[in-house]
Amino acid sequence: MIAIILSIMLGLFNFFGPKEGQLDSYQSNKLQNSDKTIYKFTMDDIDGKPVSLSDFKGKVVLIVNVASKCGLTPQYEELQALYEKHKDKGLVILAFPANNFLGQEPGTDAEIKSFCSKNYGVTFPVFSKISVKGKDMAPLYQFLTNQSENGVMDSSVKWNFQKYLIDREGRLVTFFDPRTSVNDEKVTGAIEQLF
């Protein structure tokens, strides 16, 4: 029953909310958004070490909020395959575990690290658990979801495995819904435009 209600809610948001994969606002505003980048943020990695996101300058970045006990968790496999396929072209995936949706990421950072490695062979960067919505939303996600900060669009993190695409200059390009596979043409097409 909960799954049906969530599906209906996601469908309504998709109908009325911002559309995934839209590039119009990015294209028309990218020159004036040169100072609106992810590079101003420093986030702790899964081992608790601070990482400046400016370390990823020159890379195409896909930011994904992840969870270990979600119906979408198998997307880790697709994310790892995408990373391996395109990392030499300059793609990096940054995973941010979050426990915002039905407690689907209850583990400690050490447990999350072990889960990702053991079950999916994850080699892309995984960060310390954060909040991606609500009053305690991490500043990075405040940036990603607010047009006033990112210069491109407002959005809302709908569920685990929502994807935000960032260009080689650190600017937001667009987002993709949690259920949208990274193998979908709209995702691969948008990424390939940035190489």
Can you walk me through this structure?
This protein is an alpha+beta fold and 195 residues long. It has one domain: Glutaredoxin, CATH 3.40.30. It has seven helices and six strands. It has helices at 2-16, 24-29, 75-86, 109-120, 139-145, 147-150, 185-194, and strands spanning 42-44, 50-52, 60-66, 91-97, 163-166, 172-176. The mean pLDDT is 92.
> How many domains?
1
Which sheet architecture does the biggest sheet show? 4 strands, mixed
Q: In the CATH hierarchy, what is the superfamily?
A: Glutaredoxin
The dominant shape is globular
If strands are numbered along the chain, what order do they take across the biggest sheet?
4-3-5-6
Can you tell me the CATH topology?
A: Glutaredoxin
- The overall pLDDT, averaged over residues, is 92
The tally of beta strands, per DSSP, is 6
Instruction: Detail the poorly predicted runs.
Output: none
- What oligomeric state is this? single chain
Percent strand equals 5-15%
Helix content: 25-40%
- The SS-based structural class is alpha+beta
Quote the distance from N terminus to C terminus.
Answer: 43 Å
- Helix count equals 7
CATH class: Alpha Beta
Q: Helix and strand string, N-terminal first?
A: HHEEEHEHHHEEH
